[in-house]
Amino acid sequence: MARFAQRSLLAIVALALVACTPAPTPVGAVREPPQAATATVVGAVREPSPPASPVGAVREPPPTPSPARLALASIPNPFERRQLAAGTPIAEPGLYFMDVATGAIEAWSLPRATGAWYTTSPDNRWLIGYCSDAAYAADRQGGAAFRWGRNTPRLLAAQGEYLLFHGAGYLWIAGPGQPEAVPLSIGSASSQAVISPDGRTAAVTSGNTLYLVQLDGATCRAIGEMKDPAGRAAQSTFLETGRRGQVIVVHSHWQEGAASQMAQRLDFFSWSGERLGKLLPPSVGRSAISPDGRLIAWEEHPSQLTQAVVVADAATLAPRFRVLGATLCFHDFGSGDWLADSSALILRTSAGYRLVSPDGSIVPAPAPEDAAGPYPDDLLPAPDRADLFAAGRHVVVDAAGRPVAAAALPADPNVGLPADLSPWGLSSTELRFALPHLGHGGKCGESEYLLPARVEQPPFGPLVLAVGLPANDCVNLRAAPGTKGQVLTCLPGGTRLSPAPLAELPQPEAQEPYYLT
Q1: Which of 261, 326, 339, 413 could form a disulfide with 374 if both were Cys (CB 3.0 to 4.6 A apart)?
Q2: Cβ atoms within 10 A of the Cβ of 303, count?
Q3: What pLDDT is recorded for position 395?
Q4: How many Cβ atoms from other residues are within 10 Å of residue 142's Cβ?
Q5: Domain-by-domain residue ranges, the chain?
Q6: In what order do the strands lie in the sheet with 295-303?
Q7: Strand partners, 63
Q8: β-strand partners of 326
């Protein structure tokens, strides 16, 4: 950085003047594709690679890409709207918004499309549908609509007045007030984007660089470089909002140590571009930060036998407690999250969903009174109310498990299972879901084993189990798995065992792992 500080002020000002400026040619003009010699933004990979620029500095933007590589058209609204009374049976494909107060449902679909799947923006404003040969987005409020290729350009984010696309090496801004997309000279195939709750600002990653984009003025600036502690570029990044959209969170991952273990860092930024701090949790698994920013929870694996969730102080990462036999991963969609007032965290255990408070108290989570249907899981808290929960992505229950609003879906999960779409937007006024489900590969729970949940206080010792049998009974310890292995001894009830992964067990000559049956 000192090397750049020695450059002339004039050069620095000249660089700043072209910071993520819009490319001059609008969509529709014909140009040759960018040439290989064109300079790129920080984080993009080209040969030969130019010296890295400091955060905030950019180079001249490349020429505008050929419009043949970016097909985005403003069209009449292709979505059809239907209003359904509370309790109306639903089985047709589409995107649905249920009024939590009344149970009435607003349904949207592409009537002439077959095999379409649907999603929406975090603020429930944009209707988005993907068909076999094209994709569509329509403003639910004003009706402005767009069509683009099924796979290109790629829609990065939608919220408020704007849609953000990546295509032809550029970031593109479109919306009701911007029917011809404006290109910005940033973007890469791995770009990710999130938009602020007020819909005016976007955070965009391009390579390992984080940019802040002012959507109304189509300008942006680099605010951070994602590197490991040794100063090397992160191997992968994941961008999201935290604390109910209040902050920008960038997860960076890299390998370290002789065993090439993965490590993770969380960098926090404000929507004005200020770096707020960073965390290096000791786990690369799922994590959840409380809305008030005081606590963080993460997953760890104390043994191959089970998982645990650690709740720690967010400022120091000092653990408060851990829940052994718990996970933040839910079976089909969603993950453990904090209630809106930070009073409890939802976990999944072998006995069902549980609420754990900041002091370590653990109680059953609310569950629908009729949980015998095909949607018993995916209990997700409302973003702005601590007394409302979405169950199965189609039912809203209160803190006692009483239904507040419910969609009447078919009992057959092949027809009535909602798609993998978060049921909550920015508020709890509406619950949204989409049909059909279209299948998935499973998220977690298919092969795991969770011990009965229990709360442990730090310092945490090694996992210790006890043979759960009466004192006058015993369990066989065998030299091989299965019932045919040689019985070495019979362990009486209450015997304490400390399991370890087989790969980590000492294996000197004549010493082998043993198995319980």
Answers
A1: 413
A2: 16
A3: 93
A4: 13
A5: 465-516
A6: 287-289, 295-303, 306-313, 319-324, 454-456
A7: none
A8: 349
| Beta bridge partner(s), residue 81 | 108
Distance CA(154)–CA(211), nearest Å, equals 18
Closest-CA residue to 90 (of 77, 114, 113, 109): 109
Task: Render the burial of 270-294: b for 16+ CB within 10 Å, e for the rest.
Answer: ebebeeeeebebebbbebbbbbebe
For residue 485, what pLDDT is reported?
78
pLDDT attached to residue 435: 94
- The amino acid at 103: G
Q: How far apart are CA 197 and CA 420, in angstroms?
A: 22
Q: Which helix (H) or strand (E) holds 10?
A: helix 9-16
Distance CA 514, CA 511 (A): 9
What one-character-per-residue DSSP string does 184-232 give? ES---TT-EEEE-TTSSEEEEEETTEEEEEETTTTEEEEEEE-B-TTSP
Tell me the C-alpha distance between 238 and 247, whole Å. 14
Q: Distance (Å, rounded) from C-alpha 294 to C-alpha 342?
A: 9
Tokens 């989409």 appear where?
434
- At residue 386, what is the residue type? A
Cβ(377)–Cβ(367) below 8 Å = no
Task: Give the pairing type, strands 134-139 and 126-130.
Answer: antiparallel
Q: What torsion, rounded to 10 degrees, do the Cα atoms 414, 418, 420, 423 define?
A: -170
Please, which residues bridge with residue 214 across strands?
201, 219
Pairing of strands 430-435, 134-139: unpaired
Pairing of strands 465-466, 170-175: unpaired
- CB 325: neighbour CB atoms within 10 A? 21
Using the Cα atoms of residue 131, residue 200, residue 288 and residue 209 in order, give the sign of their dihedral: positive
Long-range contacts of 209-214, Cβ-Cβ distance < 8 Å, separation of 24 or more: 209/41, 209/42, 209/43, 209/55, 210/239, 210/248, 210/250, 210/267, 210/269, 211/20, 211/186, 212/269, 212/271, 212/273, 213/20, 213/164, 213/171, 213/173, 213/184
CB 160 within 8 A of CB 194: no
pLDDT recorded at residue 11: 38
pTM of the model: 0.79
Contacts of 5 (CB under 8 A, 6+ apart): none
Low-confidence ranges of the chain (pLDDT < 70): 1-70, 258-259, 304, 332, 369-377, 440-449, 464-471, 481-482, 498-517
Question: Left, alpha or beta for 118 (phi > 0: left; psi -120 to 50: alpha)?
Answer: beta
Closest by alpha carbon to 224, among 242, 237, 211, 207? 211
